[in-house]
Amino acid sequence: VFLRENLAVGEFIGRFIRVSNVPDGVFKSSYKAFSRKLLKLLAHDSRIVVVSSLVLVGYLEAQLRDTVFCSRNIPQTFQCVFNVLVLGDCLMTRHIAADLLKRLVVSDTPNVSSTPVITSTGKDLINYSYFERSIQALASLFIQLDPRSEESLKIYDIFLSFCSLNQMRIPITMAILKCPPKEQRLTTPVLSMCSTAQMTFDEAILPDAPLKAVKLLRYVLKEAIESGAHAQDYVPSELILRLIEDNIKTPVETASELVSFQCKRITEGLRLAETVSNDDDLRGDILDVVTAPLCAHIVESQMLSNPIVPYMGRPIAMRNELPPSWSADGVSIVLELLRVLAALKDYSKLHKDQYWKLLKDDRLVPFVAYAIAFGNHELTYDALLLYTHCAQVQEFPTKWSGINNINQK
To answer: Transmembrane residues, as ranges (predicted)?
Structure first.
């Protein structure tokens, strides 16, 4: 049984090494024997043994670890992990390989901005000759794997973590866009993403699956549009529009255990609409799907039902209970909706009127205030960007000051 929870095991070994009371001579002898055995296992003919051994190497002493992951060896290490992912012979193999690949590329060291940063081992990955080919082989798994499986979810995790890095987003998305159709199904990874994104939560079984699919699809279509192509060059326009409409019309059932996922689905639909609105060929269709009355309905439902509004209206001393976790997801809906209206207002009077109406609504202030005061880095960033829109309304600074005074009491 080789590492059911690979990273947890590695961390356990690291802690054991630090706190062990074993006599120094015995410990050093055992550690050397363990290290030699581990290095031999890197040549094993079982993929899961090789990739698990690579994980454990990351917890060895720095000198030995740096020898294995040195600049001369790291290209072959990455190629090995990619091959294991693509050829994975069982669920656990791909799980371990996916976690290892992310750990080799995305730093888990905290930084001031809280945004992901690339590791020293991953900084040259996009320059390796096999990079684009490996990314395309990995993306092809979206076609081959059951979209409801944990394996498929792991592949989405890899791509989303890579796309969170500025250095890798364009090379990754361009490689996916260049993927030719698979002969056996005459489909592409982009079309498979769209199909997965359209699944209901019941169909998906794992509610994260359609959310991660639509998020990755947005990254890919954004790059296509910004490079001068059109979204419908890769996905039929009717599929894109239906996906956006289905997402933003998702019912929010506050008593449901899926309420957070429902809110996130609306937000991802709005983000996709904002992205696609930059495509001249689809902007008119977006105006017809994301109508001004629908925008008004979405924001009104949040302002009436989201516990953030009464929560932020109370002095700190009276905030005895935290709002439910889905509240922050509801805040994202309102902030993203304002971004969509800002993107569409110059092309439609109805959307422009709704944009100004929302900015002048006193109930917007608690959403922006909560995002800045208590939101994660992404929510706070979005709120600060939108504050420039809010500041256009003469009364907004006064409303903001009122919320601040309440927060200080």
So the answer is: none
